[in-house]
Design goal:
312 residues, alpha/beta, Rossmann fold, five-stranded parallel beta sheet, four-stranded parallel beta sheet, 11 helices, globular
Length: 312
């Protein structure tokens, strides 16, 4: 089966075939080997400049991308909106055109507005990686989640991944719902009805439920989502305690999943709210493995978009 044209950007997964996605994840395995070396550096992106343009706060994603670029010998320009001319009213277009004039070769963009990464691709003419735009998409998080599940089981085909929590405000949930079925997995999204957008049920391979026990039945991986209270304006939950009593991912709930099922969380965690400390730190947890895998996956994405040959 043909892999199709190699995508220029990673804005979402619309232009990405399963063959290309699997090739990218295969290459992430190689990048993990690089990270296990005493000298964790290769010259793959030497001479290229990657700009991390973050208009929204981030710890894991930003650090992971900047380390990923430097591990491959790229120069990194780190742009933070709060200390830039954006705070003086400069538009996104003008900001990106200025940075592009400095001969930036690729952008990693996080923005509070959905679709912002698409605008950066339009204005810059350079490869763009979406590091999170509003509630819409966070494709590299979904890729590292898929990679972590694939590490555990060798293949995503026929696997059930349950995602529990604040689906309404989660770009991670949306990207996983788009990606995982492309790789052969079944996705179940679960949460209170107020936090469960019915439109996501139209995606192939995705089902919705408000029943957490039913959601995790037969699941191979269970992901807890953070309650994004900063995006809520009231009326979504009766109380935090009631939410935790029903939807918290804990050992009691995990007893209804497959015996070897793993626990995931995209971070940051609200411990003992959406996930118990016992589940977050227990033998099922692969949360720190997700963090570790993020760097390798992002190295693979940068390589694929900037210099990768057509291997898929």
């Amino acid at each position: 089966m043909t892999a199709g044209p190699r995508p220029r950007h990673l804005l979402d997964f619309q232009d990405w075939t399963p063959e290309r996605l699997n090739a990218l994840l295969d290459n992430a395995e190689t990048m993990l080997q690089v990270l296990d070396r005493p000298v964790k550096k290769v010259p793959a992106l030497q001479g290229l400049t990657v700009c991390t343009a973050f208009f929204e706060n981030s710890t894991r994603t930003r650090t992971s991308f900047e380390l990923a670029a430097r591990r491959m010998s790229a120069d990194v320009v780190s742009f933070a909106a709060g200390s830039s001319s954006v705070s003086k009213g400069e538009s996104l277009r003008d900001t990106i055109e200025v940075l592009t004039a400095y001969k930036v070769d690729a952008y990693v963009v996080r923005h509070h507005a959905a679709g912002a990464a698409h605008l950066v691709a339009k204005y810059s003419g350079k490869p763009v990686i979406n590091a999170g735009d509003g509630r819409r998409a966070h494709p590299t998080q979904a890729l590292l989640d898929a990679f972590t599940v694939r590490q555990e089981y060798g293949d995503l085909s026929g696997k059930k991944v349950t995602i529990i929590g604040d689906v309404r405000h989660s770009r991670v949930a949306r990207s996983n719902a788009e990606l995982l079925p492309k790789l052969g997995a079944e996705v179940v999204l679960c949460g209170p009805a107020t936090l469960l957008p019915e439109g996501l049920a139209a995606l192939p391979g995705v089902t919705l439920t408000t029943d957490p026990r039913q959601a995790v039945k037969g699941a191979h991986a269970v992901m807890a989502l953070r309650l994004q209270q900063e995006r809520m304006n009231g009326g979504y939950l009766a109380s935090l305690q009631e939410y935790a009593d029903t939807y918290q991912v804990n050992e009691g709930l995990m007893q209804h999943a497959e015996s070897g099922a793993i626990v995931l969380h995209p971070g940051p965690m609200n411990r003992d709210l959406e996930i118990s400390s016992e589940a977050a730190d227990g033998p099922r947890s692969r949360i720190l493995k997700q963090v570790e895998n993020g760097q390798a996956v992002r190295m693979s994405v940068l390589y694929h978009l900037l210099v990768g040959r057509d291997q898929a």
